[in-house]
Amino acid sequence: MATQPEEVQAALSGSYKAGFVTNVETDTLPPGLNEDIVRAISARKHEPEWMTEWRLQAYRHWLTMKQPHWAHVNLPEIDLQAISYYSAPKKKPKSLAEVDPEILAAYDKLGVPLHERNKLAGVAVDAVFDSVSVATTAQEQLAKVGVIFCSMSHAIVHHPELVRKYIGSVVPQGDNYFAALNSAVFSDGSFVFIPKGLRCPMELSTYFRINAGHTGQFERTLIIAEEDSVVSYLEGCTAPMRDDNQLHAAVVELVALDRASIKYSTVQNWYPGDENGKGGVYNLVTKRGECRGPDSRITWTQVETGSAVTWKYPSVILRGDRSSGEFYSVAVTKHYQQADTGTKMTHIGRDTRSKIVSKGISAGNSQASYRGLVKVEKNAINARNHTRCDSILIGKKCGSHTFPYMEIKNPTAIVEHEATTSKIADDQLFYCRSRGISEEDAVSLIVNGFCKEVFGELPMEFAVEARKLLEVSLEGAIG
Amino acid sequence: MLKIENLHASIAGKEILKGLSLEVKAGEVHAIMGPNGAGKSTLGNVLAGRPGYEVTAGTVTFNGINLLELEPEARAAAGVFLAFQYPVEIPGVNNTYFLRAALNAQRKARGEKELDSMQFLKVVRGKVKAMGMKPDLLNRAVNEGFSGGEKKRNEVFQMALLEPRLAILDETDSGLDIDALKQVAEGVNALRSPERTFLVITHYQRLLDYIVPDYVHVLADGRIAESGDAQLARELEAHGYAWVREHVAPGVEA
Q1: Residue A36 CB neighbours (<10 A)
Q2: Phi, psi dihedral angles at A370 (to 5 degrees)
Q3: Interface contact B73, partner A, CB < 8 A
Q4: Alpha-carbon Rg for chain A in angstroms
Q5: Quick check: B146 contacting A, CB < 8 Å?
Q6: Can you tell me the distance from the alpha carbon of B73 to that of A432, in angstroms, rounded to the nearest whole number?
Q7: Which helix (H) or strand (E) holds A315?
Q8: Closest partner residue to A431 among B84, B97, B162, by Cβ?
Q9: What is the pLDDT of residues A68-114, one digit of tens each?
């Protein structure tokens, strides 16, 4: 709001603040995809044989699949032979002190606390720059209590037994077209392991940034929470402004064992393309968590303002009895952005609960869809779901759609769905303006109020960041 | 302080105000009465700058500035306040946050120093107490789930906080029971001062028993048909608006 003039200035000075390019020497594989490329990626990362085989299996499966078109988005056929599947900064850092200053400066610009000050902030950060993880902070402190928080590549080499046991156990290699592609070519990502009985002492966080042109980012994240453990994890994403489209096809797998709790929050600000719909990131992501043990809990919270096309359904498989899954989402689209996002809640265990709160804000010529599936399996006695989908439209050319699906195979289930669509009322705007609040501030005030329930789920400091992001995204949305 | 001359305004192509003139001095309370459709609320909305109203002729000067040139938020900063006939709910937006945003936006526009959270809380809590509002008002969302009476009282509360120089009350009495009406009137009376001017738009004489106006104007067909003192309101109450047409302004269609 207008309380801090410098923030307002910053908000007015540019619509996409993360749109800079960093000059770093890179080791980039030639464009195109074949078995040799898959092997080359695996070799560059010194992976064990089984991992290479796992990738090749995924690749062969992917060859049999076709790009899906069921989502309510207009996604051109992506030429997957035209992009490079591996791009890494050339200087390989051994410790944080050796990380290329250009990269550190890039993260500084984004406000990612990589340096030691992150300890003060109480947030451990893993930062992924194009394809590789460049810095993981607070590792030692976490290692002392038994938490493993490192890059995926590191985990494959140093904790192969854990990776081998859990990778692909929630999102199988052949789950869908983009997940299969990711399984074949994923380059890095974050790995988290929380041992039995531990409440992770700090927020864990990953920052993803696509920097190089004509590359895809295929990160893979795996979080395992053992019995009675608790963890909160946040990812943030940005990309430079480029005229061509960049591809981001990630896979995130969460495993919550007995009574464990995982909270996964995303603030996604990939470059959305310009006001004519040119450029932007294709964000095609498979995120799924499994409440494997009884009384476990998984919460997805996402604030999405970026990407040209978003295709994303963070889901929860409620396998353990009395387990619960929650999904809180704010999706903002403007210009020509298209978002098809939602969640899947699959009730398998007894007395399982799920809750879905989705808030869509559409402006400009954008299209936003909520697509949700609530599935109650035959033995899921006493399953409960509550879904609430609200949308706000700003202007006359945007659209908002809701596609709720339900598959109920057990008669004891109670499934509720509420949905509303409204326009930002002229009355509300005038009311704020008549009190002295400018039109732009009034829009962000009203939208923030609309999203309050979701922001309330984010860790404190990220809730503040999310609100600012919303303000910047909605700048100039009216008029 | 406020001078309206020959004001013509229309909405959706339909002319509502047809040459309204009115002069108001600082510290005065003017009641605007009149039958439905006479243009009472339109006058309030045009002064506050509501989009959709088109001023086709005339001028409005407020403390020497041309009010019609300003955006609604700039009018607020200049000291114009409209207490809404139907206050709007803004779900999820905390009252304290809203009021601080409003007050600071106005202060900033006037070149005054903005209040930080602590300073603001002190001010707003003081006003809550002075106006006899429930303290939980500050934790609730703007007008969300408020009863009709609460909404109207909240308008008066906002007015107390923002300290406007021209307060326009648009049928603030409508829909209120007698106790709520008294509370609202007490709030308004507490804010009367030599620097503050009120335009009290109302259908009924009832409100004017509690907020005693210096002048009463009867609006008919987009113009002021008759002006007088508080006695005029009582005569209207006794005889109805038809009386204005027949005895005061023959030939004016209401």
Answers
A1: 11
A2: -100, 130
A3: yes
A4: 21
A5: no
A6: 8
A7: strand A315-318
A8: B84
A9: 877 777 777 777 887 777 776 665 555 555 556 665 665 565 555 55
Structure tokens at A284: 């095609």
Question: Distances from the Cα of A436 to the Cαs of A101, A345, B114, B143, in angstroms?
Answer: 45, 44, 13, 17
Q: Where are the domains of chain A?
A: 19-312
d(CA A11, CA A66): 41
Q: Which of B107, B90, B52, B91 is nearest to A436 (CA)?
A: B107
Residue A349, amino acid: G
| Angstrom distance (rounded) from CA A246 to CA A240 | 10
CB-based contact A437 B102, cutoff 8 Å: yes
Residue A149 φ/ψ, nearest 5 degrees: -135, 105
Q: In terms of DSSP H, where are the helices of B111-147? A: 117-130
Q: In what order do the strands lie in the sheet with B166-170?
A: B80-83, B166-170, B197-201, B29-33, B215-220, B223-228
Q: What is the helix (H) or strand (E) element at residue B209, kind and residue range?
A: helix B206-210
The residue type found at B145 is G
What ipTM does this complex have? Answer: 0.94
Inter-chain residue contact A431 with B90, CB threshold 8 Å: yes
Concatenated DSSP letters of A176-202: SHHHHHHHHH--B-EEEEE-TT-B-SS
d(CA A323, CA A303): 24
The angle subtended at Cα B163 by Cα B31 and Cα B10, nearest 5°, is: 50
DSSP bridge partners of A403 = A371
For residue range B163-187, what is the model confidence (pLDDT) as tens digits? 999 999 999 988 888 888 998 899 8
